[in-house]
Amino acid sequence: MSDALTTRLDSLGVAYEIIPCDPALADTAQFCDAYGYSLNESANTIVVAGKSDPTIYVACVVLASTRLDVNQVVKKRMGVRKASFASGSDTEELTGMAIGGVTPFGLPEDLPLWVDGRVMLCDRIILGGGSRDRKVLAPPTILRALGAEVVEGLAKEAL
Fold first, then answer.
1. DSSP bridge partners of 58
2. Per the confidence metrics, is the pTM higher than 0.70?
3. CATH superfamily label, 2-157
């Protein structure tokens, strides 16, 4: 995915940097501790499943210092009565990427991408890089260039 990732990133016309990482340290908290990044600049891409027939999905980007509001905002925006985090196996089947490496730059074209407004206030964000061995460091404007929809209140402050 490396070549596909850089090709996709280059097409967006926004400066970025690929940050290599130990796959064993790809989970957000471990990555931030090991590499000196803050949870306030680390943005996770989370796939949510809406309970319907067939199941519908959306990808959401939120800061690691917040919690995705699945039970209120996401569920309502999806138009379903129940929504939950997609399982690791469903996420991998849908995106081709493992948890800890999911990147908004390699998602299926038909998967909506919603970004919490707090993400857009950062100077820079660190995102998954498509696999657990790399991350992408870029200004949040790269998500607008990707066509993401910014949703105010998509996440809540973590307790």
1. 48
2. yes
3. YbaK/aminoacyl-tRNA synthetase-associated domain (3.90.960.10)
